[in-house]
Amino acid sequence: MACTAAFLGLGLVDSGRADDVTPPAKEWRSYCQSYLKAVEGDADASDLDVTYCLGVTKGLLSGLRVGAQLGALSFGSRLAVQHQLDADAIFKQFQQQDPSRLLGVCAPATATTPDFVRPVLAQLEKNPGDAERPIAEVFYEALSAAYPCR
């Protein structure tokens, strides 16, 4: 029971509430500030903070990528049905698209986790009211502004 409560607090177990989909940005910010300190060589950074930041950040990046692909494919399928287009041809077109372009976040291929964390932290610094919003929303907005597709 104590273990489940601890995992609930970390967001690793779904409590069933709709607002638990992603943590508030302020929670992510506190852990990821510690993560960046660790990246910069601070030996006192908490392993738990680093692990939490990495887990949530990697999960958000994967979720955005997969979500963009699924959304685009769903939209393409709808167009194919509605306009009686060749569904196979549309599917092939979507397979050829870079998922980053579908999402609208075109970070360099060499981007590392800190390269994704820094612009989100900067956005939260510039817009303190965003701290109460779900991190997934703030994360996407910050990365699409930092790494627009050209």
Essential attributes:
single chain; about 150 residues; mainly alpha
**What would the average pLDDT be, to the nearest integer?**
82
Number of domains: 1
Individual helix count: 7
Structural class designation: mainly alpha
The topology string of helices and strands comes to HHHHHHH
Beta-strand proportion: under 5%
What is the element layout, followed by pairings?
Layout: H1 2-10, H2 25-39, H3 47-82, H4 87-95, H5 99-103, H6 113-126, H7 135-146
What does this structure look like?
By secondary structure, the chain is an all-alpha fold. The protein has one domain (22-146). The chain has 7 helices and no strands. The protein has helices spanning 2-10, 25-39, 47-82, 87-95, 99-103, 113-126, 135-146. Helix 2 (25-39) crosses helix 6 (113-126). The longest helix has 36 residues, at 47-82. The radius of gyration is 18 Å and the shape is elongated. The model is unreliable at 1-18 (pLDDT under 50).
Quick synopsis:
This protein has seven helices and no strands.
